Amino acid sequence: MTADMPGLPAMSAVGSAAAADAAAGRLVRLRDVDFAYDQRPVLRRINLALAPGDFVGIVGPNGSGKSTLVDLIDGIHQPLSGEVLVRGRRTDHYRRREMAREVALVPQRFDLDFDLAVREVVEMGAYCRGKDPGVAGDPEATLARLGVAHLAGRRFSELSGGEKQLVVLAQALMQQAPLLLLDEPASALDVSHQLRLFDLLRELNRDGLTVLCILHDLNLALHYFDKLLVLSDGEVAAFGPPAEVLRPEVVEAVYGVRAYLHRHAGRTYLTFSPRLRGERRGRVHLICGGGTGAGMMRELVDAGYEVTAGVLNALDTDEKTGAELGLRMAVEAPFTAVGDDAHAENLDLLRAADLVLVSAVPVSRGNA
Q1: What pTM was estimated for this model as a whole?
Q2: What is the pLDDT of residues 10-62, one digit of tens each?
Q3: Which of 244, 187, 184, 180 is nearest to 207 (CA)?
Q4: Please, what is the angle between helix 118-127 and helix 161-174, to 10°?
Q5: Quick one: which of 26, 105, 110, 289 could link to 21 by a disulfide (CB 3.0–4.6 Å)?
């Protein structure tokens, strides 16, 4: 017992922290964490708490500190300041085998110094936490759950990058740790295997596994995860439910691209276009409707113009597109003629424009 315990005062502090985290329902907690490589700041003032059963994605540009954050939780690195706690215990107080019982990591890069069969690689997940594979689980059943049981007898060195990713995930699952960390687990997978992977992670999460996963695909992040942590320049830019976190203005500020949020058939998804820097080219007012102006709206915005539109009926395709793009529009209620207020607003937009474009919109009493 004493070999694992650095001393009574430390154990008392650890015990009180563990009790506090248990009472608050926390599995992982980062408090005011800073980290640097050779005096180069990588993470600053990171605060994060994970409860058992959380399903959280980490997104952000390259170099924003995502992999470093995951490595800190796994105890691979120690913070420059602040503290990282797993079950209320600082990560530098864990031995590697102890940490393996709490946290399983699927790294971004993985290499073996010696050639093993896939089955043996998967079994290593049980050994690293001190269990016989027969007790920890069936390696081939774990591979089958990932759809790669046919690889069990192959040499790990013979596999493709995507196949290796799935095998390393199977190895991590053999640890049977309550927290699974994944660093871009789908980067080498085709679309079919990406969806199968995230479906499986969701299924494992429903069974009680806590998941913290780095990924770059914002639409997968929107669809699958309960919460998203957005990192930018080593700091937390946003944290919360995906639809609240990945607002177009947040995506533009973090990634430097235009983002458009769409809702269709009960699903939310993002599309992107480059953000042009410099002054706008001018203001264009678009007279359109019935979907005849949606494409022009996007092209004009992408080209750097300030775009207005009207008069549009609420819920019209062009009105929805304009709302997604954040355009100022003169809008009238559906299935009604243009009223005085909408007409006056449209005239104001017309007068303020440098150019007026009229799409091939049908004209009738409803929009005249």
Answers
A1: 0.74
A2: 434 445 555 566 546 689 999 999 999 988 999 999 999 999 999 999 999 99
A3: 180
A4: 30
A5: 26
CATH 2.40.10.120, domain 2-267, yes or no? no
| Helix/strand/coil percentages in the chain, nearest 5 | 40, 25, 35
Tokens 């092209």 belong to 299
The ranges assigned to domains in the chain are: 2-267, 283-358
Query: Model confidence over 168-194: pLDDT tens digits?
Result: 999 999 999 999 999 999 988 899 989
What is the rounded CA–CA span in Å between residue 99 and residue 220?
29
Backbone angles phi, psi at 303, to 5 degrees: -80, -5
Q: What is the pLDDT of residue 11?
A: 38
C-alpha to C-alpha distance for 15 and 90, rounded to whole angstroms: 11
- The reply to whether CATH 3.40.640.10 applies to domain 283-358 is no
Structure tokens given for 222: 């929107």
What the block records as the tokens of 16 is 């009180």
Do 175 and 184 meet the contact criterion of CB atoms below 8 Å apart? no
Helices (H), 128-272: 133-136, 139-145, 161-174, 191-206, 218-224, 242-245, 248-255
Rounded CA gap, 20 and 32, in Å? 17
Report the C-alpha dihedral over residues 130, 134, 139, 141, rounded to 10 degrees: -140
Q: What is the pLDDT of residues 311-322, one digit of tens each?
A: 888 888 888 888
